[in-house]
Design brief:
The complex is a heterodimer of chains A (121) and B (224).
Chain A: H1 3-18, E1 23-26, H2 30-38, E2 55-59, E3 66-75, H3 80-98, E4 105-115
Parallel strand pairs in A: 3-4
Antiparallel strand pairs in A: 1-3, 2-3
Chain B: H1 41-50, H2 57-61, H3 63-106, E1 110-112, E2 119-123, H4 124-136, E3 141-151, E4 156-165, H5 171-190, E5 193-204
Parallel strand pairs in B: 4-5
Antiparallel strand pairs in B: 1-2, 3-4
Helix pairs in contact in B: 1-3, 4-5
Classes of the chains: A alpha+beta (121), B alpha+beta (224).
Region (Disordered) (chain B): 1-30
Protein name (chain B): Asp23/Gls24 family envelope stress response protein
Biased composition (Basic and acidic residues) (chain B): 1-12
C-alpha cells in the first residue's frame, strides 16, 4: 500500500473510532504533539492536529497484514471496557472493509484519558 | 546568524600566530570579496572583530575598509537584538515540548482491560484518577496516592492506595469500605480485573467543620 493509501487507512480508522458512542476524541501520538509544541508563533498557519494523529498503522513484520493502534479519550458515564471493545471492533471492521485484498488486521485500543463532561468536547 | 561563531570563521592551520597581511592574498572563502583597496572583506571583518580599529592605521584611513567595518557593526547590532529577543521564544518552545514529554510520562503504565480476546489497555494515571474518586466517596476517607500494576500474565491488576482517614471510627472498617468502593468502581466504571486493593492509612483527616469552643457558642465537631 502506498503512502497515500496508508493515510487513507488512518482516516478510515479514525472515522470509525470517532463514531463510537462514548469516544470524546483521539489522543494525538507523541510525535504529533511534539510537532505542535515546537510550532512557533512565527508559523504562518496555526498548527492543527488531525484526528488521524491518534491512529498508528504498521505493517506486520512479515508483510502479511496490518496492526492498528488507536489512542482515545473517552467521555465519562460509560464503562471504559465497553467503549474500548466497541472501538476495537468498529475499527477492525472498517479497516478490513477498506483493504483492497483480504489481510489479517489486529487492533490495539488504548484509553489515555476519561474526560469530565465539561471538557469532553 | 552568529558572526562570531567559531565555526563560521576560518581558523589558521596549526597553533601558530594568526596570518599577517601577507596571508591576506589567499582567499579563505570561495567567493570572498576583495575591497577596492585590495584587502579581503573577510580579513577586514575578522580584524574588526579581534582588535580596536585604531590599532590599524589603514583601516582608520581607508574609506572602503571603514565602510565594511561599519556594515559589520550594523549586522552585529541586529544580531544582538535578535539574540535578546530569541531566548523567551526558545524558552517557550522548550517549555511546551517538556510539557508534552511530561504528559506522556504521566500516563504511566498501560494496563490491560478485562478482555481476554482483544488487546485493550488503559493508562495507569487515568484508571488511578477514577479509583481515587471512588475512594473519596467514602465519608471520612481521602485518597492520596494510587498505583496500579499488572499481575500475572493475564489481565489481572493489583491496586496499592494510600489515604488519609478520619479517626472517629476504627480504621480497618473504613479501609474495608474504601476497598469495596474501589473494587466496585474498577469493575463498574473501568472494566479492570482488580485482584487486590492494598490500603495504607498515612494521615489523619481533620474533622470538619473545625471545633469551635467559646463562651455561649455551641460546640461543633464530627467528620466530613
Amino acid at each position: 500500500m502506498t503512502a497515500t493509501g496508508t493515510t487513507a487507512l488512518l482516516g478510515v480508522a479514525a472515522d470509525a473510532a470517532l463514531t463510537v458512542p462514548g469516544v470524546a476524541g483521539l489522543q494525538p501520538r507523541l510525535a504529533h504533539r511534539l510537532a505542535a509544541a515546537a510550532a512557533t508563533r512565527a508559523d504562518p498557519m496555526p498548527h492543527r492536529t488531525p484526528p488521524e494523529a491518534g491512529i498508528r498503522a504498521d505493517r506486520a513484520p512479515d508483510g502479511s497484514g496490518w496492526h492498528i493502534e488507536v489512542r482515545c479519550v473517552l467521555a465519562e458515564g460509560r464503562r471504559a471496557l465497553d467503549i474500548a471493545r466497541n472501538v476495537h471492533d468498529q475499527v477492525r471492521t472498517a479497516v478490513i472493509s477498506h483493504l483492497p485484498v483480504p489481510e489479517p488486521v489486529t487492533v490495539t485500543v488504548t484509553v489515555t484519558r476519561i474526560a469530565a463532561r465539561y471538557d469532553a468536547a | 546568524m552568529a558572526l562570531d561563531d567559531p565555526h563560521t570563521r576560518p581558523e589558521p592551520p596549526g597553533d601558530g600566530p594568526r596570518p599577517g597581511p601577507a596571508a591576506a592574498d589567499v582567499p579563505p572563502f570561495a567567493g570572498d570579496e576583495a575591497l577596492p583597496c585590495g584587502r579581503l572583506l573577510s580579513r577586514v571583518w575578522e580584524q574588526a572583530q579581534d582588535a580596536a580599529p585604531a590599532t590599524d592605521p589603514h583601516t582608520v584611513s581607508c574609506p572602503y575598509c571603514r565602510e565594511a567595518v561599519e556594515g559589520l557593526a550594523t549586522v552585529n547590532a541586529a544580531t544582538r537584538v535578535l539574540r535578546a529577543e530569541d531566548p523567551p521564544g526558545l524558552h517557550a518552545v522548550a517549555g511546551r515540548v517538556m510539557e508534552v514529554v511530561r504528559a506522556e510520562v504521566r500516563l504511566g503504565l498501560l494496563l490491560p482491560l478485562a478482555d481476554s480476546d482483544r488487546d485493550l489497555r488503559i493508562a495507569e494515571s487515568t484508571a488511578a484518577k477514577v479509583l481515587r474518586q471512588a475512594a473519596d466517596t467514602v465519608p471520612g476517607a481521602r485518597a492520596a496516592t494510587c498505583r496500579l500494576v499488572p499481575e500475572g500474565d493475564g489481565s489481572d491488576v493489583r491496586v496499592t492506595m494510600t489515604l488519609a482517614a478520619a479517626l472517629d471510627r476504627p480504621l480497618p472498617d473504613r479501609a474495608h469500605q474504601v476497598r469495596r468502593s474501589v473494587f466496585h468502581s474498577a469493575g463498574q466504571d473501568l472494566g479492570l480485573a482488580v485482584t487486590a486493593v492494598d490500603i495504607t492509612v498515612v494521615g489523619a483527616l481533620e474533622p470538619w467543620p473545625p471545633l469551635t469552643v467559646g463562651p455561649g457558642l455551641p460546640t461543633h465537631g464530627g467528620t466530613q
